[in-house]
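Ticket #4471: structure export looks truncated?
Reporter: QA, pipeline team
Priority: medium

Steps to reproduce: submit the single chain below to the structure queue and open the exported record.
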Amino acid sequence: MNGTSQLGDFLRTRRSQLRPDAAGVPTYGERRRVPGLRREELALLAGVSASYYTRLEQGHSLGASPEVLDAIAQALRLDESERRHLHDLARSAKPRGRRRPAPERVTEPNAQLLAALGDVPAIVIGRRSDVLAWNPLGHALFAGHLDPGAPDVPAERPNMARLVFLDAHTRDLYADWPSKARAVVGNLRLVAGQYPQDAALHTLLGELSARSEDFASMWADHRVQACTAAGYEMRHPLVGPLTVMQQTLSQGVGPSIVVATTSAGSTSRAALDLLAQAITRSLPARSDDRLTTG
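Actual output as written to the record:
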């Protein structure tokens, strides 16, 4: 998977998903061989020549200006996350030297914030969705069936994308699993556009595509989604159902921290308090401020 192919695949897929009536293109009742817009129609909406757009979609024109990309994004009815993704793909399609992404680790600000969130489930996530660290309540909520020390060993670190698609416990954890799964895929699409040379990311995507038909189908849809905040109903095996707001706290460069919060005075808050009590009883010798970090 390279930047040129990603750009072309994204443009073709999104063009095929845009109905003429939604784009304001008259069809006059004609039978159409393509489900979405034709290249000529999309080029007209974007204000570029059909030949230029065709070359861009086929990977033969790699110098599209930001203004042209914005015009294409508007024609395709892309939202802000999708527009930024289109720009990322266009940049990654340009020839440049290959640089291996730096290994990910828990930064000091990550560790300090994680320590401050002792009463809130929290995990530190890398760009490929590897779990770099978690606090005890984050481990208990998201992956209590796994070894709490797993993030300490890079080769054994849990990966949230693998868990969502390949782990039965995690699949059962979400009442609306498809919604969670689409969010995971949409975020990985964004990351793939930002890090086209990340071999480990490509390996992960290949593994998930081969082992999960659901992932392969969602990946082919080319939807992107920034994981900032979303509510999920969870069915925890120890404390039962609870609804949490999962929010991603990003510090710009480096790993992000995902926290799960509940409404004050709700049954979900009571369930989370019960989970905290349960792990305190099961780990009496473990202090509240001790963290699992990698």
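Status: closed, not a bug. The export was complete when the record was re-opened. Leaving a note from the reviewer for reference: Residues 90 and 172 are 38 Å apart (CA to CA).
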